[in-house]
From TrEMBL:
<dbReference type="InterPro" id="IPR016181">
    <property type="entry name" value="Acyl_CoA_acyltransferase"/>
</dbReference>
<keyword id="KW-0012">Acyltransferase</keyword>
<dbReference type="InterPro" id="IPR036527">
    <property type="entry name" value="SCP2_sterol-bd_dom_sf"/>
</dbReference>
<dbReference type="InterPro" id="IPR022902">
    <property type="entry name" value="NAcTrfase_Eis"/>
</dbReference>
<dbReference type="InterPro" id="IPR000182">
    <property type="entry name" value="GNAT_dom"/>
</dbReference>
<feature type="active site" description="Proton acceptor; via carboxylate">
    <location>
        <position position="389"/>
    </location>
</feature>
<dbReference type="InterPro" id="IPR041380">
    <property type="entry name" value="Acetyltransf_17"/>
</dbReference>
<protein>
    <submittedName>
        <fullName>Acetyltransferase</fullName>
    </submittedName>
</protein>
<dbReference type="InterPro" id="IPR025559">
    <property type="entry name" value="Eis_dom"/>
</dbReference>
<dbReference type="Pfam" id="PF13527">
    <property type="entry name" value="Acetyltransf_9"/>
</dbReference>
<dbReference type="Pfam" id="PF13530">
    <property type="entry name" value="SCP2_2"/>
</dbReference>
<feature type="domain" description="N-acetyltransferase">
    <location>
        <begin position="2"/>
        <end position="146"/>
    </location>
</feature>
<comment type="subunit">
    <text>Homohexamer; trimer of dimers.</text>
</comment>
<feature type="binding site">
    <location>
        <begin position="90"/>
        <end position="95"/>
    </location>
    <ligand>
        <name>acetyl-CoA</name>
    </ligand>
</feature>
<feature type="binding site">
    <location>
        <begin position="82"/>
        <end position="84"/>
    </location>
    <ligand>
        <name>acetyl-CoA</name>
    </ligand>
</feature>
<feature type="active site" description="Proton donor">
    <location>
        <position position="120"/>
    </location>
</feature>
<feature type="binding site">
    <location>
        <begin position="115"/>
        <end position="116"/>
    </location>
    <ligand>
        <name>acetyl-CoA</name>
    </ligand>
</feature>
């Protein structure tokens, strides 16, 4: 019989980290690891499954905020450390954890990163945003013109102090973007100190610091170097372009790799568009609408005739029902639905990564008025988070 408990003290948190890490085939946290990981345990947000007194499964969430289409910022749970001990899998332990977590979250929406694509749909999470890994041929990359601002390199201590403040000051604007919590920065600092040649540069424009980039350069062979960009945020186009000018003009770098949104305009920076190659497209954001009425009201809609959407949610039946969506907003109604969609797929269209018509073509949803629904949920920017957790 699985018993789900909320954990509250440090010894339990460390046991939680150990169970999760074992599920991922990693060893338990060392004392040094634990110093880094411990700040990411927030009381009230850590759940574990027990068989009598043995911990057999884990999940937790971090309190954060998420930008939705139209620019509103809503409270958001960043769900992480999902794992079940290998000798207890496929007996419903994760199902019990997810059920408890979703019914107790204070936030109207949750997102996570999935280790496998088949795990989370059944719990109402939909694939809501993907990233594109691009490789830039730095030796052939020419960005015409000069920088408009200044790029300066920081030492590690200054970067550690400045980046959390700067990230907050840059603000949240991109749908899919999330705020970062103190434990996130502790992990980022640790990753940087492990990669001892990690470098942070900050861009300043006329109004002060307005962008930053963290990267690492690795020598592959015979002075051939590859740069990996680990973190890149900017407040305006000038900062974005200047930071690309900086990385493409660095000596000794042959290839630059970065994860960007599906519609990132990086290709158009260069005289020769072929210097940018898409190496991969991978899922980034899995999104769960926890409070469907609130989340439908939180975003804005495009111009189209109103559509009545029937939502089905097996795990959180309070969301079940029909919602009339129009350019003025969304409200719950007692009307016949034009189309019906399970909550995981509503999560998939919510930020604009996919459309109702695409889901209907794939026989994942059925109904009428698909074009109007597409136009209502249309976005002018593809979602991209840019914060891994
Ligand atoms: C993924 C994991 C947490 C699932 O835990 P679990 O307790 O076995 O899950 P449940 O028994 O509650 O499974 C619920 C359903 O999901 C299915 N399922 C669970 N994990 C699955 C997977 N990896 N692939 C396909 N189906 C899966 C089960 O078959 C079951 O289906 P059913 O209801 O039709 O029988 C566990 O396998 C694990 O810890 N894996 C390694 C770590 C990991 O990948 N964690 C996720 C990090 S994002």
């Amino acid at each position: 019989m699985t018993d789900i408990r909320v954990l509250s003290d440090e010894a339990q948190f460390r046991a939680h980290a150990t169970v999760f890490r074992r599920a991922m085939h990693w060893g338990p946290p060392s004392d040094d690891d634990w110093k880094v990981v411990q700040p990411s345990y927030e009381p009230d947000r850590v759940l574990a499954a027990f068989d009598r007194e043995e911990m057999i499964g884990t999940t937790q969430s971090y309190a954060s905020s998420l930008v939705v289409p139209g620019g509103a910022v809503v409270p958001h749970a960043a769900v992480s450390r999902v794992g079940v001990r290998a000798d207890y899998t496929r007996r419903g332990v994760l199902t019990a954890l997810m059920r408890e977590q979703l019914s107790s979250l204070p936030d109207p929406v949750a997102t996570l990163r999935a280790s496998e694509g088949r795990i989370y749909g059944r719990f109402g999470y939909g694939l809501a945003g993907r990233w594109r890994t691009v490789e830039v041929d730095a030796k052939r990359a020419v960005i015409p013109g000069e920088m408009t601002g200044r790029v300066r390199m920081l030492d590690q201590d200054t970067a550690d102090k400045l980046l959390p403040e700067l990230h907050e000051a840059l603000g949240l604007s991109r749908p899919g973007q999330i705020s970062r919590w103190p434990g996130w920065w502790a992990r980022a600092r640790d990753r940087k100190s492990v990669a001892e040649n990690s470098v942070t540069v900050v861009h300043s424009g006329p109004d002060g610091d307005d962008g930053f980039l963290t990267y690492k350069v690795t020598e592959e062979k015979d002075f051939k170097h590859r740069m990996s960009i680990a973190d890149f945020e900017w407040a305006n186009d000038d900062a974005w372009r200047d930071l690309w000018i900086y990385v493409t003009r660095l000596d000794l770098v042959d290839q630059i790799e970065d994860d960007v949104s599906l519609d990132d305009p990086v290709t158009w920076l260069f005289e020769d568009p072929r210097v940018v190659r898409t190496k991969d497209v991978f899922d980034e954001i899995w999104l769960r609408l926890v409070d469907v009425p609130r989340m439908l009201q939180a975003r804005t809609y495009g111009a189209a005739e109103p559509v009545v959407i029937g939502v089905r949610d097996r795990l959180l039946p309070a969301n079940d029902g029909c919602y009339r969506v129009s350019p003025d907003g969304a409200e719950r109604v007692e009307e016949q639905a034009d189309l019906t969609i399970p909550v995981d797929l509503l999560g998939a269209v919510y930020l604009g990564d996919t459309t109702f018509s695409q889901l209907a073509a794939a026989k994942r949803i059925s109904g009428t008025r698909l074009r109007d629904a597409d136009a209502l949920f249309a976005v002018d920017r593809k979602p991209y988070c840019g914060t891994f957790f």
